[in-house]
């Protein structure tokens, strides 16, 4: 039953773990030479909280990026 609840949450978009992106380690040290549009890791602005090297992204932001 617990697995079904977790799957339902995932399908309904309630579980934000799948929205977490790894932050570019070079960017965190101000050493990344790639623009944020070309780096496969996140380049979050200073006002975004980084936890354990990851940020939680907005679903709509990811959707727009993958469509372009």
What would you note in describing this structure?
With 68 residues, the chain is an alpha+beta fold. The protein has one domain (16-66): Ribosomal Protein S8, Chain: A, domain 1 (2-Layer Sandwich). It is built from three helices and two strands, in the order H-E-H-E-H. The chain has a two-stranded antiparallel sheet. Mean pLDDT is 77; it is low at 1-5. GO terms for molecular function: RNA binding; zinc ion binding. It is found in: Nucleus. Belongs to the muscleblind family.
Number of strands: 2
* General form: globular
Q: Provide the β-strand percentage band.
A: 5-15%
CATH class: Alpha Beta
User: Mean of the pLDDT scores?
Assistant: 77
**Element pattern in H and E:** HEHEH
The strand order across the widest sheet is 1-2
Radius of gyration equals 14 Å
Tally the helices.
3
CATH overall fold name: Ribosomal Protein S8, Chain: A, domain 1
Q: Give a short account of the largest sheet.
A: 2 strands, antiparallel
| Helix/strand class | alpha+beta
Number of domains: 1
CATH architecture: 2-Layer Sandwich
Helix amount, in percent? 25-40%
Zinc finger (C3H1-type): 18-46
Family: Belongs to the muscleblind family.
GO molecular function: RNA binding; zinc ion binding
Domain C3H1-type: 18-46
Q: How would you summarize this macromolecular structure in one to three sentences?
A:
The chain is of the alpha+beta class and 68 residues long. It has helices at residues 2-11, 25-28, 59-67, and strands at residues 20-22, 54-56.
């Amino acid at each position: 039953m617990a697995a079904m609840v977790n799957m339902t949450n995932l399908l309904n978009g309630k579980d934000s773990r799948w929205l977490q992106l790894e932050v570019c380690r070079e960017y965190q040290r101000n050493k990344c030479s790639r623009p944020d549009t070309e780096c496969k890791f996140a380049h979050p602005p200073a006002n975004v909280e980084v936890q354990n090297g990851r940020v939680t992204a907005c679903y709509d932001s990811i959707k727009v990026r993958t469509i372009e």
